[in-house]
Amino acid sequence: MEIGFQVTHSRRVHAVLAYLNGQYLPRSAAMVPVDDRGFVFGDGVYEVWRVVSGRLFETERHLQRLRYGLNEIRIAAPDIACGDVLARVAGRLLRESGLAEGEATFYLEITRGAAPRTHNFPPASTKPTVFATVNRFNPADDLRRTGARVITVPDVRWMRCDIKSVQLLPNVLAKQQAAEAGAVDALMIRDGMITESSHANVLAVLDGAIRTHPANNLILRGITRQIVLEIAREIGVAVHEHAFSERDLPRLEELFLVGTTTDVTPVVRVDDAAIGSGAPGPIAKRLFTELRARIDAACSARLESDFAPAPA
Ligand code: PDD
Question: Which residues have C-beta within 8 Å of that of residue 289, sequence separation ≥ 6?
Fold first, then answer.
C-alpha cells in the first residue's frame, strides 16, 4: 500500500516513511520503546547513504562498515545488513516517500534492542531494533563555491571513533559550538593533530600532496574519504595518510571536508585565519568534479527491479 494522498490532480504529497522492525509506517507513527538500548545507552550503530535518482551510492562499502561496527560492538548482523534486503527496504521507502527522483539520503540505525536497563548485554533472545528512513537532500552548492569557515575544538571523543556509533554527543556539541560561532563545522584536535570534523573527514594539501589522518581508531573510515583518495591517486596527486597538526594550518595550500552529506567542501578560514589563498583551491574543485561524476554515473542506471516507478 502506498502511503500518500492526492492534493491536486497533478501533485502528490507523500508522507515520509520509516521502516521499523519489518513494518513500513509514516515516520510520525514509528515508535521505539523507552527501554530501547539505543535510547538509554546509545548502544547501536548507524549508516547514512547518499541517494540519487532512487539509487544508493556505494551500497556495499557502507554495508561493510556497518557489519564491521556491529561485529565490534557484538550485535549479530540482522538481515538488512545484506545488500538485497537493504535495496528492497530502501527502494520501497524512497518510492513511497516520493524520493525516487532527485537527491536524498537513506539512514539506517541498528541498536541492541529493548530490554530492562542493565549495563551488560540483555538476554541473547533480545532482538536488535532496525530503523531506517529517507530524507530529501540539498547539496550545499553555494557553500562549495564560496568555501566554508570552520572553528577548532578539542577532540574529546572515545578511542573507538572507527565505530559509527549513535553516541554522537561530542559531535553534536562541536557542531553546535560552530553554529553559535557562525561557522559551518568544527575541526577536532587531539594531541595537536587534526582528526576529523563533527560529521566529515578532513583533507589538506601541503607541498602539493594530500595529507589526512590515517584511518585508525581515532577517526571514522569515511567512504567518501576512501573514494576521494582513490580519485586523487588516479589524477596524479600524491596522498600521504599522515595526520597534519594545528601548527601546519598557516602553511596549508588547501583544506577540505569530505563526507556523504558534505561531498568535497573547501574550507577557506579556520577560526580567524585564512587557508591558502582564502578561496576554494584547484585540487578541491577537481576532486569535487570527479566525485560528482562518480556519484552521477553510479546512480544513473536505475535498477527497475528494485525501484519501479511510483504509481501515478
Ligand atoms: N557522517 N567522520 C564522521 C565523524 C562522520 O560522522 C562522517 C559521516 C564522516 C564521513 O563518512 P562518510 O564519507 O562515510 O559519510 C566522517 C554522516 C554523514 C552523518 O553522521 O550524518
Answer: none
The list of the chain residues with pLDDT below 50 reads 1-11, 303-312
Residue with cell 547513504: 49
d(CA 144, CA 267) in angstroms, rounded, equals: 9
Structure confidence at residue 304 (pLDDT): 44
Question: How far is the C-alpha of 184 from the C-alpha of 177, rounded, in Å?
Answer: 10
Residue 308: exposed, middle, or buried by beta-carbon count in 10 A (0-12, 13-18, 19+)? Answer: middle
Q: Specify whether the CB–CB gap between 214 and 243 falls below 8 A.
A: yes
Crossing angle between the packed helical segments 282-300 and 223-234, to the nearest 10 degrees: 110
Atom 20 of ligand 1 has which residue's CA nearest to it? 199
Q: Please tell me whether residue 26 adopts helix, strand or coil conformation.
A: strand
157 in Cβ contact with 188 (< 8 Å): yes
Which residue ranges have their beta carbon within 6 Å of ligand 1? 48, 171, 196, 199-201, 220, 222-225, 259-261
CA angle 212, 214, 218 (to 5 degrees): 110
